[in-house]
Amino acid sequence: MSGRSGTLFGGGGMDWDKLRVFHAVAEAGSFTHAGEALNLSQSAVSRQISALEESLSVPLFHRHARGLILTEQGELLYATAREVFAKLAMTEGLLTESKDRPKGPLKVTTSVAFGSIWLTPRIREFLELYPDIQVAMVVDDSELDLSMREADVAIRMSPPRQPDLVQRHLMTVRVHLYASPEYLKKHGTPRRPEDLDQHRLVVYGDEARAPISNINWLLEAGIKPGQERRPILQVNNTYGLFRAVSSGLGIAALPDYVAVEAAELVRILPELTGPPVEAYFVYPEELRTSKRISVFRDFLIRKVAEARAA
Predict the structure, then answer these.
(1) CATH, domain 98-164+279-309, list 3.30.70.100, 3.40.47.10, 3.40.190.10, 3.30.70.600
(2) Residue pair 258/227 in contact by the 8 Å Cβ criterion
(3) Rounded to whole angstroms, how far apart are CA atoms 221 and 273?
(4) Per residue in 4-24, pLDDT tens?
(5) Can you name the CATH fold of 175-275?
């Protein structure tokens, strides 16, 4: 960046206002949307960006009819600004957190099925214990970037690949075959793995984000060489499988935590078990001392132990 004394990091220190405006414009991709987010007019946003570009002596955006695109220098500044604002948000949360009573926002992300079926029904008890914590849940089968504060903590069905993340093994998720009573009444109950040849099978589609490689193992269980089983339906996530099975459509391999929450489902061929999935509680190293995170972690560990003992 330019060594001029009027720069972003020059004489008067960092110009936070301009940096904040730049960050908002880079995130939004337009002056108008950034202005709405910052409660500023489009012209005020444009003036701030022009002043910033002038002080740095580099263009930060290519201006097109369809919107704004970051220049190479803009990309460099955006990467730094994004990290700075993420760290500031994290630090603010730690500074405002009460020493004796956990409080403040806690953004949790996990898979659609685990979040919707297992975690959400237990959040009420957590909030009754810690009413000053504001929980936001993001259920998504893709992994949010914790280091960029897209969430504070994650429950993941595989070990985290990102560096600088603290991980705690939460549970081993067992997988079995399930069907609804309605389906079994209409189509009969398979007694042997070979009987699956005559049944309607619901499996994961190619787009599924699978924590294990042979996720559709029920298509091969007990099958004769040279034969092939065709599923009646492919779905891209576990929650979709669960809804299909609950509706009476067919048989699917489901995590046991799903079936425990849906008491009407029947486990079939109990000797058949799929590859286990390991679930982890994950959060950034910077939040190691956060009381909100420690009480949430301890709560989850207790609920997992209670479910195991039930």
Answers:
(1) 3.40.190.10
(2) no
(3) 10
(4) 444 555 543 358 888 889 999
(5) D-Maltodextrin-Binding Protein; domain 2 (3.40.190)
- The SS3 of residue 155 is strand
* Strands 153-156 and 104-110, sheet pairing: parallel
Q: Which tokens is 82 given?
A: 């994004």
Secondary structure (3-state) at 42 = helix
Q: What are the pLDDT digits (tens) for 29-80?
A: 888 888 888 888 988 898 989 988 888 889 999 888 777 889 999 999 998 8
State CA 212 to chain mean position distance.
17
CATH topology classification for 16-94: Arc Repressor Mutant, subunit A (1.10.10)
| Contacts (Cβ under 8 Å, ≥6 apart) of 9 | 1
Residues of the chain with CATH 1.10.10.10: 16-94
d(CA 158, CA 172): 10
- Residue ranges, comma separated, of all CATH 3.40.190.10 domains in the chain are 98-164+279-309, 175-275
Sign of the Cα torsion 243, 245, 250, 251 reads positive
How far is Cα 94 from Cα 104, in angstroms, rounded to an integer?
9
